Amino acid sequence: MPPDTTSESPGSDVTSTVFKDTELTLGLPGEARFSGGKTCSKRGFIERSMDLNLGDSSSSSSQTRGKILAGQDFSSESLVSGAGKPSAAKRQEVVGWPPVRSLRKRALEGCKYVKVAVDGAPYLRKVDLEIYNSYQELLRALEQMFMTCFAIRGNYVGEGGRKVMYPMKEMEYVPTYEDKDGDWMLVGDVPWKMFLESCKRIRLMKSSEAVGTLAPRTHPRSCTYEVAADQQLKAR
Amino acid sequence: MPRMGYSFPEEVLEHVFSFIQSDEDRNAISEVCRSWHDIERWSRRRVFVGNCYAISPTMVIRRFPEVRSVKLKGKPHFADFNLVPEGWGGYVAPWISAMASAYPWLEEIRLKRMVITDESLELISKSFKNFKVLVLSSCEGFSTDGLAAIAANCRNLRELDLGESEVEDLSGHWLSRFPDNYTSMVSLNIACLGWEVSFSALERLVGRCPNLRTLRLNRAVPLDKLANLLCRAPQLVELGTGAYSSELRPDVFSNLSGAFSGCKELKSLSGFWDVVPGYLPAVYPICSKLKSLNLSYATIQSPELIKLVSQCQNLQRLWVLDYIEDAGLDALAASCKDLRELRVFPSDPFGQEPNVPLTEQGLVSVSEGCPKLQSVLYFCRQMSNAALMTIARNRPNMTRFRLCIIEPHTPDYLTLQPLDVGFGAIVEHCKDLRRLSLSGLLTDRVFEYIGTHAKKLEMLSVAFAGESDLGLHHILSGCDNLRKLEIRDCPFGDKALLANAAKLETMRSLWMSSCSVSFGACKLLGQKMPGLNVEVIDERGPPDLRPESCPIDKLYVYRTVSGPRFDMPGFVWTMAENPALRLS
């Protein structure tokens, strides 16, 4: 049976009749048939469609493979409907699909680049805040970025599960940021999302300078973890 | 046969021909007789080469010695979506060097999807004394240094449009290279530039060019500087803002609002990156005059979009993100009765679940409410045959219809059937349809409908569709006016391709990737059709190291009168008569 007609497709009888009538051959009209190769070509298509799935998690690639087979061996019962999809946040990315230009993709991804200065460091860095999901991730990244040039002492995961940020007793630097209103705030005061929207730039301030330059806290503590640094400030 | 050619002096015929601008008509004129052919070729001023590899620059120059305006296209359309590997080709350098000596009076160069270097830009700037127009649409390969050469040397430049090109940003100071006595800019589009340009240079340039009608800024131009620019150019017809965000300050707002009100001729707006909704009312004074609005980078929500769009009663073109939602499209349908073109882009193209309530219903509303709607590009996550049939019946005047249902193989969500009959209705009712993009679950049947009805169709894009070669055969044998066909991930193979080989010579190009075309069939096609370049793109290595029956990765076939090209990279092989030319 020729690989390109399937018995499950509705109207396939008409299809195969018309197909025979057109007498398509592997070759130009009047040429001899190509020998073999048909089975290989169909298998090859499925194989390559799997290759398309960029070798990510096997569950997603098998899901997409299922879809392509459903397209090939069409029957209405075997269709993959939207409801059956896994609840993964992102769909399997196929190259060039959906057809959105890179320029547009990049513009939508949004980059929230802010300058990061460290008192005493000769140069600034720029970080894309959007790639981090929490203060913890951001500060860890900053620490790694600036660790090489000088020591930022202090840790931010305390004992007993209490998350502690830059205990000021041990640390030389306090993470601060300038917000939309031009005020210098302590990093960690507001929920992460709010921080993302309002942060214009970051400065790792020497703790000796921190006193007196930070804006007084006007909001009650709204973040989900404790900031021991705050208590240190109050203690002064 | 009456000797018409000798009835009039050449000068008279030339004068008559000068009123004939379209290529088709000029081609027809040139076939009347020898002397008309000669007169026409000496008087042709504009040349459009839709595929830069279809003909050599020498041949063009030989036939048309007095050209003033050239438009060239390079890479296939799917290059926009990263399907064409880097280094594939589309180099404009041979054209620029040939034209530098042959066309000293060249005024306009328009390129699309081509690679242009700084050297070429410099050559352009020094070779053509009367150079006026440079349009680089989706091009790459150059930097701000090349732009500096253009700015410094092109005294008569009127238009510099960088489109959506990739420009290497070495310095923002290229803009300062425009001399102080340069005042002829009419259209400047730098929206694609990633980094800052020298703002003071930009301000001075805008201030001294009284004929400036189009100004598209890049994202790096801050909002608080926009009012200043607008005040220097109140005659602007088309404006692209920079980032549309700033702290909400009443003075900035009132300056901006005043500046916009002062632009009495403004008909087109774009830009709007990083929109702060509080600043949108600044444009309200000019909304009623707008004909074109590009909000496709504006991440604002439906209520703001509705407020804006409802005031644009004369809108003809709207590009927007799916944040507009069905509700926003309802409002569009109610307010914008002159709408001709709608493009709705996805805000979250890779998300699994819909993130906004935008469905087929929005498109149906617009098709009902906007009688002049003829061009649609619509990304969504669900569609039904019923909706497509309604759209088709509502809008038989549709000429461009591109639907992208984000998940491949998505069926009609109501009936779970393929979307064959829906698209069938589109091609049946919309008799002037010239461009069509398909998506969703589709069998060979949809191609039967297309082959039967889409007689005016010129460009067709197909992805994840069809069941057999019959599908491809329907397209190639039925679509009489087909010029460009691009296919990806469809089970189309050798049979239809080889049986319709002659058709390919009537088309500009065919692209097939991740289909079932064998290497053997490609070789056969190349050998039998000398008028075609049959190029196999395969990054896995030489296709002749695998069995001939094995499918190739990507195929690009195009008609040409200049034979195989010689600038192919290592992963492109051409199937030609001469086997020696096959190898890279």
From TrEMBL, chain A:
UniProt keyword Repressor, yes or no: yes
Keyword line: Auxin signaling pathway, Nucleus, Repressor, Transcription, Transcription regulation
Domain PB1: 111-207
Cross-referenced SUPFAM superfamilies: CAD & PB1 domains
GO biological process, one term: regulation of DNA-templated transcription
Segments forming a coiled coil: none
Domain of life of the native organism: Eukaryota
Protein location: Nucleus
InterPro entries linked: AUX/IAA_dom, AUX_IAA, PB1-like
CC per GO annotation: nucleus
Protein task: Aux/IAA proteins are short-lived transcriptional factors that function as repressors of early auxin response genes at low auxin concentrations. Repression is thought to result from the interaction with auxin response factors (ARFs), proteins that bind to the auxin-responsive promoter element (AuxRE). Formation of heterodimers with ARF proteins may alter their ability to modulate early auxin response genes expression.
Family classification: Belongs to the Aux/IAA family.
Quaternary structure and partners: Homodimers and heterodimers.
Protein name: Auxin-responsive protein
Organism this protein belongs to: Carya illinoinensis (Pecan)
